[in-house]
Amino acid sequence: MNYKFKTKPYAHQLKALEMSWDKSYFAYFMEMGTGKSKVLLDNIAMLYDNGKINGVLIVAPKGVVKTWYEQEIPTHFVDHIPCSPVLWQAMITKKQQHQLDTLFQTGHDLHILIMNVEAFSTKKGLEFAARFLRCHNTLFAVDESTTIKNPEAKRTRNICSLAPFAKYSLVYPILTDYIYHPSCQIQ
Questions:
Q1: Whole-angstrom Cα distance, residue 95 to residue 78?
Q2: Which of 38, 61, 170, 173 sits CB 3.0–4.6 Å from 145 for a disulfide?
Q3: Are 117 and 90 in contact (CB under 8 A)?
Q4: Percentage of the chain with pLDDT > 90?
Q5: In the CATH scheme, what is the code of domain 11-186?
Q6: Distance between CA atoms of 136 and 104, rounded to whole angstroms?
Q7: Cβ distance 136 to 55 under 8 Å?
């Protein structure tokens, strides 16, 4: 694969990227600590460079969302793509509202919205995510899919209801026998 990565991928990461980068739906069945986040960020960059996406919605557990914002994106996302990551917060201040508004500005920036999975238990979070997905050609990623494993849970149903609005969906399953994916069931 001929691509200029910000951080050099290991062989297993490169293999995962080669298998996934242009698929509409894909699950990374990789062990914890093997660099799934880096693979996803490289995948995002390749899709953006090929004109396939202009937005990304990353859904992660509450304890992980800041890691995406403060560590994963700055460390692994390529420098040649202008991006504007925004971290969702339940309490929206004027400053936060301004940041959220930047996600809908026209231009060439890649818009990245990072939301905690708990936000999808609320009408406000669900409606904002739906608006974001409708306004972009989006890659929709769910980090740690066990947070949406119960198909009867409100947040699982809400996240699943958004899947049709995304051009690409990726899921980070924890290795279990059963995974509920936003667009389908994977056994």
A1: 27
A2: 173
A3: no
A4: 56
A5: 3.40.50.10810
A6: 9
A7: yes
Angle, helices 11-20/36-49, rounded to nearest 10 degrees:
40
pTM above 0.85, yes or no: yes
- Of 107, 111, 43, 44, the C-alpha closest to 83 is 111
Q: How far is CA 29 from its chain centroid? A: 16
Whole-angstrom Cα distance, residue 45 to residue 55? 11
Contact by Cβ (8 Å): 90, 126: no
Rounded CA-CA distance 172/164 in Å is: 18
| Separation CA 154–CA 70 (nearest Å) | 29
CA distance 119 to 122: 6
For helices 154-162 and 123-134, the axis angle rounded to 10 degrees is 10
Amino acid 6 reads K
Phi, psi of 67 (to 5 degrees): -65, -40
Q: Is the dihedral of CA 8, 13, 15, 17 positive or negative?
A: negative
How much of the chain exceeds pLDDT 70, in percent? Answer: 87
- What residue segments make up the domains of the chain, in order of their start? 11-186
